[in-house]
Amino acid sequence: MSSPFSINGGACVAMVGKDCVAIACDLRLGLQALTVSNNFPKIFQYGDNVFLGLTGLATDVSTVSDLFRYKVNMYRLREERQIAPRTFANLVSSSLYEKRFGPWFVSPVVAGLDPKTGQPFICGFDSIGCIDFAKDFIVSGTASEQLFGMCESLWEPGLDADQLFETISQSLLNAVDRDALSGWGAHVYIIEKDKVTKRLLKGRQD
Amino acid sequence: MEVLLGITGQDFTLIAASKAAMRGATVLKAADDKTRSLNKHTLMAFSGEAGDTVQFAEYIQANAQLYSMRNEADLSPSALAHFVRGELASSLRSRKPYNVNLLLGGVDPITHKSSLYWLDYLASLAPVPYAAHGYAQYYCLSILDKHHHPDISLEQGIKLLNLCTDELKRRLPIDFKGMVVKAVTKDGIIDIEFDDDKVVKSA
């Protein structure tokens, strides 16, 4: 109940499709059962097609997202190119492990397309940076159990962009409706080769 | 039992804070001002542990004023909110963190857009249309959910504030000695006359 990971609540999910990936999050910020804001997005963009979802303690969501904005900006200046999702995932991992004995209380999710091959890439992390590579989907947050159930039953290989949007949206919305600490609207990003679509979902406001 | 309230409208942000300075069950002062102005169009209200509150608020105030003097330009409410969050976040993981909850309200000097930021001692930052801190949240957020609109006028905002303070007087077990009420508009920060002596009958 008073675990730092479940004080503020929140949910995030990423999915692989055919030549596309999707990442979605809810918008709730709460203090235990009290909802403070329904406008707290948990997905951040770090390149043309590199996205990071962060659930967990809200203060660390903000701190860690700001920290990676700084690190990715420095990377871009030094290398004179955008960061690739796999490189970014390793940056996330090593940055989290730096705080091994006093971690950031976040569960990150990375989603993107490889800039060279266009291959979908998703992965998740624990709070100290252990990477979980997946070829189907990654879930995180207080609704992760519900998300596992929804994704296991709705996801299938080879979904196109429109089908993937429908699948990830239904998975997220129905998962957060069974979690008291998540929900209150959602953001969904569909990432294709040269196109990123961001959609705002209205969810139940209770 | 400190009360902080914030309400935004079309061209203003209202900030209200209870007047009672308490220590345990004793009221030490009945005309305390728990607000500090950061610049001409940004106001901050604070509650929390006794020494930390004023110390932190005046540290932020001094740095905001230093920035204004060095650059001959004020920071926007959004920029200030993120600065305060950064300071509070680094304090959170220090040996002795500041135990301060904040509301930061302002009107952007260029766009004239009103804004309100909710910040707790963990440095969780959220931009909100209306906000409260402490026990007041449980009584006031539901009232504001029902009656608030983004385009209300200052008069309507003050009426809304009265609705909230009436409920607090009705439900809170300790007298919070009325409210200091201030409004941030495009012309600056103005003190609002607020009737603290109004008696509200309990249910």
TrEMBL record, chain A:
What's the domain of life for this entry?
A: Eukaryota
The record ties this protein, via Gene3D superfamilies, to: Glutamine Phosphoribosylpyrophosphate, subunit 1, domain 1
Spell out the family assignment given in the record's similarity comment: Belongs to the peptidase T1B family.
Q: Which Pfam families match?
A: Proteasome
Q: Which UniProt keywords apply?
A: Cytoplasm, Nucleus, Proteasome
User: Could you provide one GO biological process annotation from this protein's UniProt record?
Assistant: proteasome-mediated ubiquitin-dependent protein catabolic process
InterPro entries per UniProt: Ntn_hydrolases_N, Proteasome_beta_3, Proteasome_bsu_CS, Proteasome_sua/b, Proteasome_suB-type
Family matches, as SUPFAM superfamilies: N-terminal nucleophile aminohydrolases (Ntn hydrolases)
Species whose genome carries this gene: Cladorrhinum samala
Q: How does it assemble?
A: Component of the proteasome complex. The 26S proteasome consists of a 20S proteasome core and two 19S regulatory subunits. The 20S proteasome core is composed of 28 subunits that are arranged in four stacked rings, resulting in a barrel-shaped structure. The two end rings are each formed by seven alpha subunits, and the two central rings are each formed by seven beta subunits. The catalytic chamber with the active sites is on the inside of the barrel.
A single Gene Ontology CC term: cytoplasm
Q: Where are the transmembrane segments?
A: none
Cellular compartment(s): Cytoplasm; Nucleus
Please state what the protein is called.
Answer: Proteasome subunit beta
Function noted in UniProt? Component of the proteasome, a multicatalytic proteinase complex which is characterized by its ability to cleave peptides with Arg, Phe, Tyr, Leu, and Glu adjacent to the leaving group at neutral or slightly basic pH. The proteasome has an ATP-dependent proteolytic activity.
TrEMBL record, chain B:
Q: Which family does it belong to?
A: Belongs to the peptidase T1B family.
Listed name of the protein:
Proteasome subunit beta
- What does it do? Component of the proteasome, a multicatalytic proteinase complex which is characterized by its ability to cleave peptides with Arg, Phe, Tyr, Leu, and Glu adjacent to the leaving group at neutral or slightly basic pH. The proteasome has an ATP-dependent proteolytic activity.
Question: Pfam families, from UniProt?
Answer: Proteasome
Q: Which GO terms describe its cellular component?
A: cytoplasm; nucleus; proteasome core complex, beta-subunit complex
Q: Which organism is it from?
A: Cladorrhinum samala
Name the domain of life this protein comes from.
Eukaryota
Tell me the subunit arrangement.
Component of the proteasome complex. The 26S proteasome consists of a 20S proteasome core and two 19S regulatory subunits. The 20S proteasome core is composed of 28 subunits that are arranged in four stacked rings, resulting in a barrel-shaped structure. The two end rings are each formed by seven alpha subunits, and the two central rings are each formed by seven beta subunits. The catalytic chamber with the active sites is on the inside of the barrel.
Question: Do you know which CDD domains this protein is assigned to?
Answer: proteasome_beta_type_2
